[in-house]
Amino acid sequence: MFTVRCILGTSAKYLTSLPAPRQQIKLQNRMSTLLRPVAAVCQVTATPDKKANFSACKQLVEEAKGRGASMVFLPEAFDYIGSSREETLSLSESLTGDTISQYSQLARKLEVWLSLGGFHERGHNWESDRRIYNSHIIINDKGEIISVYRKSHLFDVELPEKGVSLKESAFTIPGPTLVSPVQTPIGKVGLGICYDLRFPELSLALQRQGADILTYPSAFTVATGAAHWEVLLRARAIETQCFVLAAAQVGRHHEKRSSYGHALAVDPWGEVLGDCGGEKPGMVLVEIDLEKVSSTRRNMPVQQHRRNTDFYQSLEKS
Ligand SMILES: O=C(O)CNC(=O)[C@H](CS)NC(=O)CCC(=O)C(=O)O
């Protein structure tokens, strides 16, 4: 079950049925002050089959656009989830490969912005070291790559009681830097990926650089997702007073791997606006009202109340 908040569908239909053009313009002007931009937060079940994954994602992007979204968010590993390290590596591409050019064409054709939450990108020394980046790519409505953030915290975790054992650093290069929030039609978007969500320093750094919206496209494990996912996302939203949009992988990718799902949209007060559930692919559509960001920050100015870095380091120095 998932919540959908979208008022564009019916209003747009109403507009096209209006006879007098002048009346239409008047109404359109009034509506543009009433309507907020809409973001689509998606969840998918990627497999090792890149072609099938693209066609599933394309369908979601088309549906989202048809329902009024100006930006669509796809999760980490939207391109594929490999069934072995070797397969994960061999399926990887560069930013100039077929996968990203297909998405670029899709964005241009539909005139929609895309957040591609975690692309398996061949590293700069691929020929010699066969290592990849986990890259979050923003594509604008002209099909141009606007920003690339490479995941900086890698998921090397052993939880024997929960059946979780992943060592991302065995094949992935940690990203060297954060990237500045990107101006998009829904607001300024700060980029993270999945496990980055557990490091509030990153979200605060993006907030300080002007982010209105934080994004954590993910492929959370079922065990860690059930325990931590929603709490972490809401905490990041509450601390930074940003919207938090987290596209997700859901369900069974292959015989050895499943993901938690629950792609989520959270507002700057920490309220969950939409949840895609834990069962199957889908999306939530949410209006992004940036006035919610400013009023939340005005009413409770936590960023102004924050003490300087020295203050928090005073214990280490004493
Ligand atoms: O491997 C790929 O192809 C795509 N990458 C991932 O799925 C990554 C690295 S293994 N997964 C996570 O970071 C899960 C984090 C998580 O579950 C937590 O923080 O609890």
What low-confidence regions span 5 or more consecutive residues with pLDDT below 50?
A: 1-21
Give the distance, in angstroms, between the N- and C-terminal Cα atoms.
53 Å
* Count of discrete alpha- or pi-helical segments spanning 4 or more residues: 11
**Backbone CA Rg:** 20 Å
Order of helices and strands: HHEHEHHEHEEEEEEHEHEEEEEEHHH
Task: Say which molecules are bound, naming each kind only once.
Answer: N-(4-carboxy-4-oxobutanoyl)-L-cysteinylglycine
Domain CN hydrolase: 36-290
Family: Belongs to the carbon-nitrogen hydrolase superfamily. NIT1/NIT2 family.
GO molecular function: deaminated glutathione amidase activity
EC number: 3.5.1.128
Protein described:
Keywords: Hydrolase. Residues 297-318 are annotated as: Disordered. This is Deaminated glutathione amidase. Belongs to the carbon-nitrogen hydrolase superfamily. NIT1/NIT2 family. The chain is of the alpha/beta class and 318 residues long. The chain has eleven helices and 16 strands. Strand 14 and strand 15 form a beta hairpin. The radius of gyration is 20 Å and the shape is globular. Bound molecules: N-(4-carboxy-4-oxobutanoyl)-L-cysteinylglycine. The site of N-(4-carboxy-4-oxobutanoyl)-L-cysteinylglycine has 17 residues, from loops.
